[in-house]
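Protocol step 4 of 5: obtain the predicted structure for the target chain.
Materials: sequence only (see below). No template structures provided, no constraints applied. The aim of this step is simply to have a reference model before the mutagenesis design in step 5. Sequence pasted as it appears in the construct record:
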Amino acid sequence: MQTIDLRSSDTATAVSKLRSKQPIPLKVTRIVQRILKEVEAQGDAALLSYTSKLDGAELTSGTLKVTPQEISVAYLKVSKEQVSAIRFAKQRVEQFERAVMDSVKPPQINEDGVKIKQKIVPIDSVGCYVPGGRASYPSSLLMTVIPAKVAGVKRIVVTSPPTKDGAIPPLLLVAADICGVNEFYKAGGAQAIAALAYGTDTVKSVEKIVGPGNIYVTAAKQLVSSVVATDLPAGPSEILILADSSANPDFVVRDLLSQAEHGPDSICGVATESPDIALKVSDLLSKLLNKVERQEIVDASLSKGGFIALCKNMNQVVEFANLFAPEHLEVMTAEPARTAEQITSAGLVLLGQYTPVAASDYCVGTNHVLPTGGSARRSSGLSSLDFVRRMDIVDCSKQGLEALRGAASLLASSEGLSNHASAINERFKGEST
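Step 4 output (structure tokens):
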């Protein structure tokens, strides 16, 4: 894990080096384009072929969709404690998402014979992609399905890669059932995104696709975004910890390790004005690396994307954080709330010694589908608001239209759209202006 001394450096330059923009490789794009094209043209046949080739699962059109019987069997394979934990996490996330929806108050105007109001309308159908492969992620299902459910989406579809025996991990099926998923398909990768976007005989297309995935899933979502709405691209997971001399080095290190185990491309950083904290964190990491579980992944992550940014003061620490715009930002300072007031760019801000990313990943109540790669400077995390549309409704009385008539007709004529002006003026034909 490298230490970068920024005390006499330009912060923006340092961040740009850490945030080197790496587009999706052309080779990946071409592979995904081929998969999308084949699934669009051949439907189930291509979807099943790629599921066999890439996931090693031999399925048919009749076994692509999870059955009620499979869900019933899944309950027998999980513990009561696991079911309870899923229900607890669901309740926490659901509670926060309902508060988000309740905070939206559609505007209304009634002035001079013109009434305008706004209606919030849910999207009809959503596809939630849940990654799989080396591990099962029921938490990702919760974080994508629950906001859609709270928003009022009628049809919620989940896709996730099957195991080699053509099954879906039991806890994932239980989570889907508890959250009220309408349809669950055993498909992963770019082929699943294609099925959700274009539809097949078995999988009906959806209006929006959300959820994290690998680089092939991300590329697929970008390529189908012209025909179906998608959420923000999710890159490797990130954590940046702001730590002053009051921070507990052990907590800092444990949170770095927890984030590093997401994958070898994870970004794990600390920004501090304290040389003592920088040294303690570095030394403790070295001691724990040989003892930690998932050591190979953690070591690869910290070697490639781990850093300690040593700043001259807390102002530079905050400047660094806002420019870096991390997915997760932990604030471990003497006055974390005051420090956080200066933060303008982060997917999620976690205050104090007892608000670790690990808790927010599961059941704090906030969503863990968050902007990465610096996109927190322009994007927000997934929420129920991403599953609704705003629709304006206007009602003009005759007097109201008459009050607008002069300006509207003049502007229409100025743009050379004489029929627009006529459409307004015809309603007052024969009347004096």
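Step 4 remarks: Residues 118 and 392 are 4 Å apart (CA to CA). The domain at 2-23+235-380 is CATH 3.40.50.1980 (Rossmann fold).
Proceed to step 5.
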